[in-house]
Amino acid sequence: MLSAIIVDDEGKARRILESFLIEYCPQIQIMAIVEDVPRAVKAIQKFKPDVVFLDIEMPGYNGFQLLDFFDEIDFEIIFATAYSEFALKAFQVSAIDYLLKPIQIDQLVAAVQKLEKIHGNSLIRQRLQTLQQNLEEYKIKKIVLPLSEGSLFVELKDILYLKAEGSYASIYLKDGSKLMVSKNLRECEDQLTPEEGFFRTHRSFLVNTAHIKNISNDTTEAIMTNQANIIITRERKIDFLNYMKHKQLA
Q1: What is the pTM of this model?
Q2: Domain that holds residue 91
Q3: How do residues 206-219 score in pLDDT, each as one tens digit?
């Protein structure tokens, strides 16, 4: 059983989330339901919950400012938000769960199931700092990588390329190190898109185009800054050249 607090300034939103949790997430025990950050601080200090379901846009203090009241964050947070597409991506790459309003039952159930898996080993402070940095600069700067022994926080500029390894992916970094992450290349591609400067040149490779040093005369290989030769398939050649052209003009 996981203890929880709901924080939302909208009465209807509080009632809906409460009813959904009671009916579809019996592993959650609701300890308190409050409408603002000051009351949330008191409830957290009193009940010491495992998770706080936290609205972002609230009068007075917003959801992020709740964190300023605690030296140590020993509870997980699932944000409720109506944020833009970019902001939702910032949540995803920062490994912070969110519920998009209006809340959907399947999304809530999935978030709670994920919470059960990571509870007690979540590096919540670091993940929240990564999220805030990405949101403040309105650009994805850092990503949380799931490793077998935990999570690692990596800046996108330090990633050279990714290589498919079955249901995993190897990430090659600027300092010469290599990481194996518990995501396949397709999942990585969903987060590291052309908007972030990454391009899928081959079914096995996703490259950070900022680290392409040269391109072979026949456009079959991209030579990276670490001298690695990355295959560019014939099917991706035209899209790749167009992407690189537009990137140079931007």
Answers
A1: 0.64
A2: 2-136
A3: 999 999 999 999 98
